[in-house]
Amino acid sequence: MTDPLIPLSLASSDEGPALFAVISQSGVVRAPRHHHARGQLLGAEHGLLTVDAGNCRWVVPATHAVWIPPALPHGLYSHGPYSGWSVYVAASACKELPDKPCIFSFTGLLREAVMRAAT
Q: Considering the entire predicted model, what is its pTM?
């Protein structure tokens, strides 16, 4: 398993800022099924991911993002080198977001908002 992108204490808590954004520059990523208190929006800048969330499994190219609601078991692995980003959203801020995992294409605006939030 690769090191977590943020300290587990932050991912496992609804306390603190409503949103954390992180950028990941990695080789191959392998994260076995796990869950955390925060929702997670993740996407790849480069590489291809398989994401297993709830009862869904997707192969996700760098043009798409995945939403994983809070407390939902999920895992992922990359097919070769990967670099990307994750946004962790406090459960209390997820009320208007989907309650099921989903995949969608993302825009340059979303990418830039994530990059800005990660600073």
A: 0.86
